Automatic annotation (TrEMBL):
Location(s), subcellular: Cytoplasm, Cytosol
Domain of life: Bacteria
Residue ranges occupied by any EIF2B subunit epsilon/gamma LbH domain in the UniProt entry: 250-351
EC number: 2.7.7.13, 5.4.2.10
Native organism: Cyanobacterium aponinum (strain PCC 10605)
Main localisation: cytoplasm
UniProt GO MF annotations: mannose-1-phosphate guanylyltransferase (GTP) activity; phosphoglucosamine mutase activity; structural constituent of carboxysome shell
One BP annotation, GO: carbohydrate metabolic process
Name of protein: Mannose-1-phosphate guanylyltransferase, Phosphoglucosamine mutase
Keyword ATP-binding: no
InterPro entries assigned to the protein according to its UniProt record, in alphabetical order: A-D-PHexomutase_a/b/a-I, A-D-PHexomutase_a/b/a-I/II/III, A-D-PHexomutase_a/b/a-II, A-D-PHexomutase_a/b/a-III, A-D-PHexomutase_C_sf, LbH_EIF2B3/5, Mannose-1P_guanyltransferase, NTP_transferase_dom
Recorded family membership: Belongs to the phosphohexose mutase family.
Amino acid sequence: MRAVLMAGGSGTRLRPLTCNLPKPMVPVLNRPIAEHIINLLKRHGIHEIIATLHYLPDVMRDYFQDGRDFGVTLNYAVEEEQPLGTAGCVKNIEEMLDDTFLVISGDSIADFNLQDAIAFHRAKKSKATLILTRVPNPLEFGVVITDQENRIQRFLEKPSASEIFSDTVNTGTYILEPEVLKYLPQDEECDFSKDLFPQLLEMEEPMYGYIADAYWCDVGHLEAYREAHYSALEKEVELQFPYREIDQGVWIGENTYIHPTAIVESPVLIGSNCRIGERAKILAGTIIGDNVTIGDDAELHRPIIWNGVIVGEESSLSACIIARGTRIDRRSQILEGAVIGSLCNIGEESQINIGVRVWPNKRIEPGAMLNINLIWGNIAHSNLFGQRGVTGLANIDITPEFAVKLGAAYGSTLKSGSSVVVSRDQRTVSRMVSRSLIAGLMSVGIDVQNLEAAAIPISRTMTPKLGVAGGIHVRLHPDRHDYMLIEFFDTNGINISKAKEKKIEGAYFKEDLRRVQAIDIGDMSYPAQVVDTYRKTFETQLNLEAIRNSDTKIVIDYVYSVSGAILPQLLAKFGCDAVVLNASLRQRAISNIERENLLSQLGHVVEALKANFGVQVSANGELLILVDESGIQIRGEELTALMVNTILTAHPRGTVVVPMNTSSAVEQIARRHDGKVIRTKVNPSALMETSQNTPNVVLGGSGDMGFIFPKLHPGFDAMFTIAKLIEMLTVQERSLTQVKSELPMVCHKSITLRCPSKTKGSLMRYLIETESPEKLELIDGVKIKENHTDNWVLILPDGGEPLVHVYANSDSREWVDEHLQVYRDKVQSFIIQQHSL
């Protein structure tokens, strides 16, 4: 007698276990489900098997080959084009089925007496016999009713609770006569339960149900998959164990070492070539695959661990599933019902919470607490916040579900009934994320003032004006155009403090989210006259008379990406001629190459129009690059120095705030004007806070981050920078070229090196220990200064990426080149040494 093993299923409900494995090849007791089915067939005298395949067919063919090693003859039929369904795949091999044959599902564990079922089929002269069983909850299965003779009377596939008419269900195992296949169409998808059996019933063909009094488990979902293991260990089902039973209920493979201090409770199954560390606890119900290492003091309470897994010291695994090749670092916790896909890396002291699923090849950072499924992104972070706000891949890391929870976490740190400003750039993905954030905020009783698409300077201005508790701005990341950036403001419009970030992270990861009654859900409103309010604030900080008399012509390039490009309207009101380029809003972020091309075009337009200068505005109103009257670009360090020179000429003895990595040109300029320079950490929050909280600050920021005018609002504002520059150049009667000619000649270079995140701390300690203490400045990174000169080297770890930046600054190019090479070699040799340990 031949059997057809239906093994084409993709096992969607078993994901992530079936992401790279067909469902019949998922292991139970460290052997594929299909192998247990083949053993069942073989026990009952069926040695000729045809396996129908569709999803990842080579996995099964490579494992079983011709079946000789498993005591059977195995042939394969692959559905190449499309799945044909349970009946269609059998119709496809009709010519190989010329006698009574058995069909069995490839995703169930059972110990049916198949010989009894076959004898029943023949005694009844049945055309189709279904092996049935009785289950407590038939909702997930096809329900069958039989008469007193066991002839089938009625079918109902997966009934609702109100439709249940029996507890007898179809197990997906059938004994069929070849002539029933004539009722099926050729090369079409069709199903036994939905298509063939109802037709046989209608044609009054003899069709019977054999009710099996035996174990059966449809391994259709993850809970059933776990239950199949536990039932097998308790010997509720007759399965062939792949290892020797060395003690009652303890099966252990060959060449496995268990430390004498380890505790092993029965029933338990441990594969071959395993290593169990000191004081490890392997509690009852645990299944461990081949080539698995369990670290010292680890505690395993009923997990199912596949081959090649490494479990670190003091880790705790409870009733979870760990797929092939995953590494779990020390002191990690994986809780009940969690499922970790193959080849993942779970960082030290991380926690995977109840029921969370992690797709294959993911990395969980040390200390991370994962509460939601990790499907699309590559990494689960231990922190939500990076160098500036929350970042992640658009619609992969930053999804609607993530944003709803983030909004609720932020709102839960505020008093119920508080108000928050929400704004965004013009892109559709930003609108989607902001709406999700708003939903989360409202769900915890927070009112929302929705500014919709607005430039960030406008949002920062409106936050204190509206008297709200804080604000959120959503946009594409200015440096990484496939990433989102979500920034949070405090009540003054400054980026929130690290302490506040930690509170939001705590609420998010611990799921400590407030839930309010329906009557207390937050409201949403749309503030009026937002642009007018910003304009009036803008005007209070300018010498309007100077601008009106300037007769300035400028060219502004908005690179298709600034929401609320209101500057031309303001300048026109002041009598300035502003020519606008690329002001329409695009959904797609432009590439760096496109941006550079537009910048080059801007230079040509400025020259052609004989404009005073040109400016390219980006980052939704925060950043700018200048082009002088000759079409030459002014950016980065040169732009910083130009702005400091211009502002200190207008406000001598003023204070400027710049990041640690800015060139010493700012100090040289400040000395000329009896001014003061304060350096901060290289992040936006530090610049904003210091600029806002220090007296007499006239300018903050840099050419790479943008410029802050604290009396206007606490954030970066490219639009106000342009207007202020027009005012200052007019009053000082200078052009950009003239200002440039006055700037100090300083050489400032940098290089970037790869550096693993876990090495950054030890690198900084090494540098501090090997340099003279009197030369060190430790505001951000490690700065090594030469006394009585402006010569210095700064080694600065990147805030988000596994990188370290090395800056060198001097009046001498030779000094810069020499020291940049010296510290490059020093840093690289340390990183290599650490990597080899």
